[in-house]
Structure formats: structure tokens, C-alpha cells
Amino acid sequence: MKRKTNQFLLPLEKPSHNKNVYDIYPSVHIKDGFIGEGYETLVNEICKEKIVILDGYVGVDWEEVSISFVQILRNKGLSVTMYNMQDCLKPEDEIEQMVRPYLGGEDPIFGYRAAIELHDYFDEAKVSTIKVEKNTDITIIYGTGAGQYNLNGYLVYFELPKNELQFRMRANEITNLGMNSAKNTKQMYKHFYFVDWVVLNKEKKRLLSKIDLIVDQQRPKHPTWMTGALLRQQLTKMSKTYFRVRPWFEPGVWGGQWIKDRFKDLNQNVPNYAWSFEMIVPENGLLFESDGKLLEVSFDMLMFHEQKNVLGKAAKRFQDEFPIRFDFLDTFDGGNLSVQCHPKPHYIKKEFGENFTQDETYYILDAEEDADVYLGFQEDIKPKLFKKALEHSCETKEILDVEKYVQRIPAKKHDLFLIPNGTIHCSGINNMILEISATPYIFTFKMYDWQRLDLEGNPRPLNINRAFDNLNFNRKGKVVQETLISKPYVASSGQDWKKIHLPTHSDHFYDICRYEFDTEVTIETLNQCHVLMLVEGTSIELELADKCQTFHYAETFVVSAAANSYKLVNKGGLKAKVIVSFVKDEAC
């Protein structure tokens, strides 16, 4: 299976790694159970079954899967009848008509979260023709949606991480669900985000308790697998303690060199790294390891299985949706981000079907002396004149004097800038930003992008009209200094530690604190999920119940609400500073 990316394929076995620095393959070690590798061992697990159902995510290489199963089973002298669920799909034109209302027409980025089910893709008359052959040793129903065939078969579910799905997408190796050919990359991603992922996540949730085997299919010809029972057991353990998702990294037109210079396990053969998806949970996965072998499942499986343990009191509001994301924006020796804003709550619900909006903050993890952020309007802003200037720049490709309209504010290490919905903003160069945000992550309305092309040489789409439907022009002048720059204060302290509150805006449903300590500090979860990162120091040790785990500088990790309390122990020679973000009690 071809993929278009410079990023390394997840190795079959966890590579050797400098244990004192950021780990790009964080994994949970399985003590009581094992991870199998290869189609031969996988087929050995199912060869005594009469009916086998091979279901899985969009993007899975079903040709490889089906051919491998048939060859191995026939080599064992077993007769096999295969049914491909793709043959039971409705005609492509009917599926296109069904999904069209959710695809936003010609909009290159935005659609609306689909309100359809997986069974809507299938022709029931065709599905009903699937029969178990009495004279065949094994009947296999395979393909995305195979679980729709309601037989009591042995269920094997094939996972594909979202990063690998997109790498296959960029290589035109896969299509959207029910489509016969690939669209252009932006339209295909939009189709995935607003339709396929919504539909298939609901189906994954429905099937999770029934899965007999879970398979990671991202490595061509080298799947890894474990039992569904073991997966569910590990998810439950994780939901009561801690976890770290597998981050993934992407170059970008404005990207910098900070990540590339410090995370040496990454592929260095790229121009820059713009983003790290530290914890953007619709896209990240969870890695399990046993005897060195790695297996990845999507993060949402944890939420489907144990949302109350993970989120505590916030589960009532957010349910399956993990509310907070952490990601890196690297502009060290790079470029400015686009001038942008994010939608108001009613707008994101009405226009896109999202349950909550993209309220953000910029935490400055590192910065050069000349670093700054653009935030809020100048006192004398005239909305009509600003829009006219933006449209003129878009049409003529002339450079816009951004500072005539938007404030530019110096940024230094550990500053926190508040970016509630409707706030005009962007990062300037020479910042390493930890973006702490509500989980939605694609709803950025760009107004100006410094007249540059993307890495493929194409113009980046602007959304001036959508931005002006959402911009808050009251966030200007002194109001910016007073309300959009957090004012830290010491909330509590002990012998060699202090808890610093970095208040967020009233529009933010999440809060942020920073613990600074020389030796150790004990923290209560108070029935809230905590998202953490060591933002200064070398390493800390997390202690809770009977578990102990070391985390290094800039690694994101989570302590579940059900953990109740935990201890952080400073393992370096310098003072440790740890950011903790959680949902405000009043927002639950």
C-alpha cells in the first residue's frame, strides 16, 4: 500500500530510544497478554470458526487482507467462501446523493456532520443473498460494514490510524466509503471528516463490546493483533490511571525548526515541522506494546468504552468527545501563521453540526527575543474598511499592513494568550506554542495568509466572509491587554511547590494551572480529567496507585478523573514546571 509522506511508518517493534528525551512512540506495556504479528498467526486464531466477519475502518487494504486469509486457509486444506461487503453497497450515485447534503458543496474545507448510519450505505436485498455454505469449512464476510451482516460470527476488526489513512489518501490509494475513485485531497479529507469518520465511529462504538480480535493494519503485510477481551481490559485499566497518545507531526508552509532540532527520532528529511498533534483525539491513537511488538488503536475506543472513568463529572456534557486538545505550533525560523478567527458556538453548531466550538489559548513554551503574537484589533478598527482591505489584498495579491488593524504583542516564555471564539489572532515567527484548546481543530477562518502558497504550490483557501460572521470587534485596544492576556497568580503553595493559576477567558470551558516544584507535589483530580505537560525541566515521574511512569520535557499525558489523586516527582536538577488543564466545574 503506497503512502505519500516523509513520516516513518510505525515500526513493528519499538525501536531503541534515548530514554531521557521525548518519545515519539509512547506505548502501554501489556503484562498479562500478548500481541501477535502477521497474517499466519492471525488466521491460526480463526481457522476453527465456521463464520468469520472481517470488519474495519475506511482505508484498510481489504485486497491484502482477503488474499492473505484465503491463501493461508487453503494452504491448511480448508475450503473458504468469501463475501465482499463492497458488492452489497448501494450504487455509487445513490450514495453520492445521500452524502451530498453534508459535503458543503464546493467549499474546500467545510461540510456538516453527517446524520446517517452505516446501514444506509447497503442494499438490504444484496446483503440478504449472503449465505453460509454448509459444504464450506469457513465462510468469511469481509470489508468495511461487514458487521452489518447480523450473523453470530467471529468478529475481527481492522483498525487504521488517521495519520496513515491520510498518507494513503494523499497517494490516491484509497477512496471515501462507497466511492469508486479518489477525489482531490482536500475534498476527500472533508468527506472523511464530516461523513465517513462520523458514520464509522458510531459503528465502531456499536461493535466494540463484540470484537473478538482487533488488528492494526497500517504496516503492509505485517499486521499486529490482540484479542478484543485484552483490548477492553487494557482500556479499562488506562481509564483509571493515565495515558499518552501517539503524537504525529506535519510540515507546513509556516513551519519552524524547534521540533526538528529537538525531537531527533523524527525524520529529519523535511523542510520543517509546523504541527505536532500532541493530543488531537479525533486523529491520535493509543499504542500498546508486548514483547517489543506495537499495536495501535484509535483514541476514541477509550472514550467509547470508559468515558465516565476518563472524564469524571465532565462526561455528562461531553460524553464520547474528549474536550481538550494539546498541539504544538512551531514558527522558530519559520513564518507567521495566517490571520484568523474561530466560530462562535451557535455558528459552529448551525453551520457544521459541532457540539462545541474551537476556543483556544497560546501557551508560549519557548520563544526568541523578537517573538510576538497578533491578537485583537487596534482601538480605531473600522470593520468595513478592514474587510475592504482584506478583499483587495486577496484580489490583487498586495501585501496587507496587518498592524494597521491588528495588535502585535511581544511574547515570552510561559505567557498565556487567550483566544476565545471570534478573536482575531495569529502567531508570529520564533514562537514554540503549546496550543491548549477545545478539541475542534479544523474550524479556522483565514482572512490573510501573507500572500504565500502551500507546500504544493497552491493558494491556501481564505474564508473572509465566514470570519466576518464571527469576528468580535469589541476585542480591541486596551480590552485586549485586560481580557486576552492571562494574569497568573499563586493559588496555593507548600514547602517547595506552588500552584499558579493562569485564568482563562469566561468563554473558555477549560482552565489552566501550572505547578512549580523542586521535589514533588501531590494533586487531586477532584473528579476531573487532567491533561498535563512538563513545560520546564527535564523529566518527572508520575506516581499513582501501583503505577509509576516517567515523562520528559514537552510530552503530553493525561491522568483520568478516576485516578482521584497522583504525585509528580521531579527527576531533574532544575525546578519542574508542569501545565495542567481541565474542564471548569461550572462548565460540566
**Rg from alpha-carbon coordinates:** 25 Å
Structural class determined from secondary elements = alpha+beta
Strand order of the largest sheet: 2-8-7-6-3-5-4
Q: Give me the count of strands.
A: 32
Distance between the termini: 44 Å
Measured as a percent range, the helix fraction is: 10-25%
Q: How would a crystallographer describe the biggest sheet? A: 7 strands, mixed
Give a description of the structure.
It contains 14 helices and 32 strands. 22% of the residues lie in helices and 28% in strands. Strands 2-8-7-6-3-5-4 form a 7-stranded mixed β-sheet. Strands 9-30-27-32-25-24-23 form a 7-stranded antiparallel β-sheet, with no helix packed on it. A 6-stranded antiparallel β-sheet has the order 10-11-14-21-16-19, with no helix packed on it. The longest helix has 23 residues, at 185-207. The two termini are 44 Å apart. A hairpin with a 2-residue loop joins strand 12 (285-290) and strand 13 (293-298). It is of the alpha+beta class. The chain is globular.
Keywords:
about 600 residues, 7-stranded mixed sheet, 7-stranded antiparallel sheet, 32 strands
Brief write-up:
The chain is α+β, with helices and mostly antiparallel strands and 588 residues long. It has 14 helices and 32 strands.
Which helices and strands occur, and which strands form pairs?
Blueprint: E1 28-29, E2 36-37, H1 39-46, E3 51-56, H2 62-75, E4 80-84, H3 92-99, H4 124-127, E5 138-142, E6 154-159, H5 162-170, H6 185-207, E7 213-216, E8 224-227, H7 228-239, E9 242-243, E10 248-250, H8 258-262, E11 275-279, E12 285-290, E13 293-298, H9 300-311, H10 315-318, E14 324-330, E15 339-341, H11 345-352, E16 360-367, E17 372-377, H12 383-396, E18 406-410, E19 416-419, E20 425-427, E21 431-438, E22 445-448, H13 464-468, H14 478-483, E23 489-493, E24 497-501, E25 510-517, E26 520-524, E27 530-536, E28 539-544, E29 547-552, E30 556-559, E31 565-570, E32 576-583
Parallel strand pairs: 1-12, 3-5, 3-6, 4-5, 6-7
Antiparallel strand pairs: 2-8, 7-8, 9-30, 10-11, 11-14, 12-13, 14-21, 15-22, 16-19, 16-21, 17-18, 17-20, 23-24, 24-25, 25-32, 26-31, 27-30, 27-32, 28-29, 28-31
